[in-house]
Design goal:
Helices cover 57% and strands 10% of the residues. The chain is of the alpha+beta class and 671 residues long. Strand 10 and strand 11 form a beta hairpin. The model has no long low-confidence stretch (mean pLDDT 89).
Length: 671
Amino acid sequence: MADTKAALSQLGECAERQDFEGAFALVKANRAELAKQMQAEGIRDALKKTTKDRLLLSFLDGVEFGGRPLDESLMRLEKLMSFQQGSLVLNDTWGLGVVKRVDYFYRRMTVDFKTRKGHQFTYAAATDMLERAPENHILVLRQSDPQAFEAMLRDKPGDFVKAVLKSYGDMPVVKLENICVANGFVKSVNWKDFWEKARAELRRDELVVIPVKRTEPIQLKEAAEDYGDGWLTAFSHETDPKLILASVREYVAQGRFATSDDAAKAKIEERLVFAVTAARKVDDALFARLACLVRDLGFSNPPAAGMREYLWERKRFVKAAATLPAREVGAMISFLAVDDEAKSRICKALPDLCFTAVAEVVSQFGGDGACRAAVAELMKQPKAPATLITLIVGKYEQFREWTELPSLITILTHAIALGEGRQGGETLKMQNIVRRLFADTKWLEKVYSWLGESDQVLFFERFQASIAWDPSTHHTIVVRMTRIVPALEAHVVKAEKKKEYARLTSYRSFALRKAEYLKLINEEMPANVRKIEEAKSYGDLSENAEYQYAKDEQRALMQKQTLMQADLEVVKPSDFADASVEEVMPGVSVVVAAPDGEHVYHVLGEWDNDPSAGILSSKARLAQNMLGKKAGDEFELPGADGATQFARIVQVKPLPDEIRDWMKLPAGMQI
């Protein structure tokens, strides 16, 4: 109580001296005791008595004393006080900015960002969205000393990455790349070269810990590890297998393991035994990484044979390969492949392995006849593994001497099939790689140079006949093929022009759309005009956030009004009485035989949609795939899981009565 009275007395003295800084420091130091005797609003009023500065007074009113915990209000007040005119601030979206003006009357501040000039923040938004930029922040360095910034970026990429980590905190490589590219530090096309140079430097830096997985953060330590008795004692009690792995790898990377004594090696071996046991049946990828490390360090415990047997069981090595970093998959493959029998087991698992593992297996065992025979057998199947197809077509020059493989035209046929339709998971990744290959003119030129004349035509016709590629991409590739081999022009099949249908919709949907349009022009747009007029009364329009928001809304409403008006002029209401059942068109019901059974769809107009009743808009993808088809025709069925499926039209028939009732004009509505 005595301390509280003393603080209150000192606040009174600060008011007499008009010493706001002293009063603020006093409140921060005694906030807990003051809060017991005074309401937050009372503390605010006491601070107000210590200054006549209008800006400080507006800050005190703007941080909501009483509406928030006292500590939070004081923190927000201190932050606002740091946002002086000319100070540098940071925003997660727009980066570095300069405070250009602080307006005590409207309680707003204007900030210039590189890509957003004159952006206004309320006091509340400023404290939530801005931070005072530290002097050593990488963005501040770029602005204050661009020459030093460019020199570090060019000559010391490792130091540059450390500066980014100091500015933004520990982060995975993916986030590091995003920050560097988004801020214009490094161009996206140059990132790979930049990161390789930076990583080479960082691996020699004792203050930086680069994780094995790209998803784990790069860590910047405050001080280098001395790896003395203290480190060894702490390591001996470590129970997290991931940290044990990282610690031993760092120990080895720093060259400590090679010079350590037998006692230190014994402790490391004991912890690795513990880590392998802990990872067992919990994390197969971690188990594999630990097993390879034990092998590399020459330890006899845990026994290598036992670790291999565990990875063989239930094909755990397959699951491990799917989550291991790419550069560690090869280490696991070599760890397992101790003899010909082991290599054979790995080759038999090729269809189950991820692309990285398949590439490693072929790279390591490609000289063995057994491996070649296994790959050839898989490629001769009607549906070869997507991973093998992608690997072979992408690097066919390396496989041309493999006489065991089927012909190139057979491999290319597999690739065309892989590029068709919608896929998921690992197959989707392979599909994207294959599609990029087909779009690569240099790759196509090589392929055609390897094919005989008859196979050139066969390859062209097979690709041209593929109906499940993206139409625009398909057309572009066909044109490129004819330019590479002009004789193929004679084999181009002229596509039939897709039948166009009148732009119609049901009376019901037309009336609902028109009612929405009338609400827009009679209610929403006038309300927006009132907002604009009200905002004008607030003063200077160039710094009036309410006015700018209202004008932005007006532009959006006007654009919506233009689009809706244009649609209402061209789309006509209809009862689809003239629809023919000879083919699928707007105004018919369609019976479809799909892989999961029969379905009935009612294809109506552009604005008609009610999945619960089976009603499809004629603009829906499923309806578009069916339009023009007749009974017995097949079409692509969009799959929820991304896999390509096909369905068949069983029957096209008139709309049932309940659907015609659904289409009628709702009671009380007009068109």
